């Protein structure tokens, strides 16, 4: 999550769900929390019962809106204008927390005079390399010397604590958002000024030393070509309001599904190693360990210890085969040479660059963007191994996909050999979840899995053993890497590897006596420690102890319930819950504060700060690591310890968030007509991924995809289960009554929805929960479509992802599923490619 | 859009907690509030035959007690008719159960507030008592031969049997009205006090008509025929009065009996064919020649029976329609307590 | 909630051991976890596998033989004709009311429907013979005949109660919209909740209570509801009554009619002699 990472230092939710109950105002935007995070939503309800105002800003009136105090419908994809206008409102109205902003953010830093804002260049920042659709961030630097290059130690930057200098970040920010007015909100988002004012007022009223406002977002911010900047825009707003690191404040990143946080911590992402260490890449000077470490280490913050984390990781991977003489086995690590994100993988599979796919708990035939291309890509593979509980669409695509049923592809033309392995589900195996708030919770095995179903641990363990056997006598470098791998896990009677041993490896241990470390501060860069994921250090601090399995609910932060990385801190940056002098902002909002008598930080949480560093601490010259940060710098993982209202180089599409229209939008960019789209976004070029032009008249409506409480992602775990299938038995698209009237549509009728990728047919659900918006003087209709459905299972329907495009946010490489443009027309039947049972209209309406 | 602007700044109320619209109370999607019974034709036939059996026996008993041998044809016909109508009844009841093998569970308990429980016990007692009465009749008529069985049967106390038969027969014909009334179905519950009397009078008119038809076939004495004709006329008038009173007092709840198939069954069947026509035909019969009279009586009897059957059809199936109507259910459970 | 200022004068006379539900529409987020938890625990089959109903997000429609918790979705605009007028979306998890005097139990001719030691109303599946009389008897439309032919409805998870666990639906509810406990306590918190909501100008009412017109001879519900709209909006009768209350009077009326008809019959048959 570079949106939060670049501004605050860590790519995770700044707070924990239970803390939402302490909020005085909760703004849910880019999320449908009641539907997709119903268990966490209880804390929103609790806050509301205590008098908090809950605001839901969303294109659709959802179950979240139903509980909210106010629902504000806005045009999908226009969130940045709304957020930018809030920032403008806060700055121009003087509603920001001046003390917080001056001490805890880089508002006073001076931006180099080479920098040119989008306001000056018609929608582009300085440094744009048009030919490569990317920015050279050199001119964005904060610097003491005009026009100079960013120094590695960024604390040397000049600053103006009065925030008056025209080049100081605060003034740059102010000018950048000057045109994000309530009128602009009305024109671009379709939100009336009164409604915007009510939201702005509620947020400002509840962002004071005594009150806090929290933001919660989810996939409806991430899944845009400007998604990262939307999130980072929210971070800027919360920094200005002084809400980050304080109880009831912060930015609650709601993750997409179970343990997605865990799968970025110990990543399934192509460009990360465990603990957010970058994957070595040929695109940077990562040729050897020293060069790699030099690149990733930041001397003046938490990242000063990156060598200890990296070398401990290599020791965990390669054991005795990792020693100083061979760069601790650094050379065994593969180096990436480009973009291998999920969307790129589809293209590479389609073009037979990738020939085999292991697909575990994923259903790309439904859940992948441009799923039509995705299914053709699956059909190009030599082999496909799926592990799932049911024969999901990705396993049966060769016989029952819409392309096959419509006769476009014949099964005998598909050469893919499909292996479907039955997978054990959560209660059938032991393991852990790391949830949306970085909290690792262990679960025991409750029942034996049925038949041949096995856990992932069982499968991966055996796969690794077989691969090592297979390559035992091979002379290739790949084989050397496999042989170097430590893979000595004891197994239990069922054949599962012992998870306690694996957890200890993740936690980290001293190589000499294999005794576990109790925190990442004990990791060393000399090869004496091994650690599978440094941020989890401390989860298993003693032999036989698994803190993720502990369940003590006592205390405001419930510190004895599970283990929250890093170091069991529940609220990140909680040094900011105290004033610069270390005293609480108010008694009501006290969380962590400086106890002068004890000479340490105390409070309800584990301080996210060196516990004995006094508020008045000034770093001595030449200090390294956390010692290089002063006593009032709460953002430990950033080089200057400050919240980044302006980032110098960490984001690929600019130091400040800027509104661009979605890649495919029926509306032009009001702010920068010459730049309708994010200039750094990445469209994937392929004949089967045609992209629409901006304001293409053939696609006049906005469409947004979403999820329902009743189903889970691509449906593999819900649409095949009768109890869940019956709750939403069929796919549908939500259409507002005005558009429905214009098309003579009634609920239950079939509609065709068309994008450049093709056409799908689904049922209409006509509902006033969607309303047409007046944008730029004309009416814009929005269509909502859940993306769970597919042709397999019990609950079926056309896949919304047959409509989506492969186009990426430049930072996160996430697709744009939350806003694109489409055409809609009424049809009489589900059409070719639909299973026979979809045409059973006669059964309707006579119950 | 102006409407929306009006509410734009309203933050004081949760969307959830803002009462949206002063709409009239209504089931949001027209869904039923209560659930309809699964009862259909089996129950209609049972209601019809049970009433016929019960009051045929009652008419026979009354005739035997008050007129003795002067009404022997009436008594005989009534008793045999009662038996004929009774025989299918338990079968119909059992077949209507979704678990017929468990019919005997009905006999685990007696529940005074459950008309169905009382009805089952009433049916059993009536079957025993009226069975003895029929047996005695059969013995008298020589159908049991001349053996010891016939002799023993003939010694059964006729008067006592008749006296016991009367309340049981009335119960069998009337309890079904109470059974329907003691539900949440608006059509049955709203003016439920009238259902038992309506079923009784309808059973009486039907039984009188059926016995009259039987007599007409056997060419009985003039006295018995005219007595039955008077009885039928009184019962028919009573039934007509009760039906009219019930329907008018139901108000809008009577909707299922005013429209559709069940409405036609009431208008053309129960009221037209079952009440008006027989009255006219029977009145005509008194002034027509005897050879015409017999045919008219038979036609009138058939129409009365048809009307009684259609009345029960309309009430049972109309009740099911009424159960599906949320407006009727809300009307029943609103404002003043129901009568 | 003992500190509630509300007087308890109108409190129905609950049996002290009675347990039940307090289901609060103002807290329901329509997640249907209660429906699924109920089906899972009680091993009830899915009974509506499509097509979709189109009635908002409600695809299970009503309580039934295989649906013992049902979440109703009521989607309305203030002015049906005006586009863009405020939408409300009410949700409520409906359930068997476990009436203090239960119509189904009164109706049952076999004694299959009993009152348990928890004061819940329970259908013994091995006794029920499928006569179906409890179905039209229930003023709330709760019991239904299963495909196998027996009447079925919520058991209040009798087996879980016996094992000291709360019912599956209450356990699963993430927002405490469904609360389980002693009815007396639930009633008190329901009353307090109503007072709290009314303070916030919410048109709140406690269903299953005399405030709404009462429950007549039913004598109160062991499953109470906090509603934020008219009961009819949630498909609940405003003033339900016990249908069996009519039975003595109906028999008396029938008996009176019987006497009159007999007298008329005797007169009719004697007059000619």
Structural class of chain C: alpha+beta
The greatest interface between two protein chains, and residues involved on each side, is: B-C, 105 and 97 residues
Average pLDDT value of chain C? 89
- According to CATH, the fold-level topology of the largest domain in chain C is Alpha-Beta Plaits
How much of the residues of chain C is beta strand, in percent? 15-25%
Helix content percent band of chain C: 25-40%
Broad CATH class of the largest domain in chain A: Alpha Beta
The helix/strand order of chain C is: EHEEHEEHEEHHEHEEH
The number of distinct helices of chain C, counting runs of at least 4 residues, comes to: 7
Distance between the termini of chain C: 79 Å
The value of Rg of chain A in angstroms is 26 Å
Across the major sheet of chain A, the strand order is 24-26-25-31-23-29
Low-confidence stretches of chain A: 145-155, 842-847
Q: What percent strand of chain A?
A: 5-15%
Could you explain how this protein is built, in words?
The complex is a heterotrimer of chains A (847), B (339) and C (273). Chain A is 23% helix and 14% strand. By secondary structure, chain A is an alpha/beta fold. In chain A, a hairpin with a 4-residue loop joins strand 13 and strand 14. Chain B is mainly alpha-helical. Chain B has a single domain, classed as Up-down Bundle (Formate dehydrogenase/DMSO reductase fold), CATH 1.20.1630.10. The radius of gyration of chain B is 25 Å and the shape is globular. Chain B starts with a helix and ends in a 7-residue tail after the last helix. In chain C, a hairpin with a 5-residue loop joins strand 6 and strand 7. Chain C is an alpha+beta fold. Classes of the chains: A alpha/beta (847), B mainly alpha (339), C alpha+beta (273). Chains in contact: A-B, A-C, B-C.
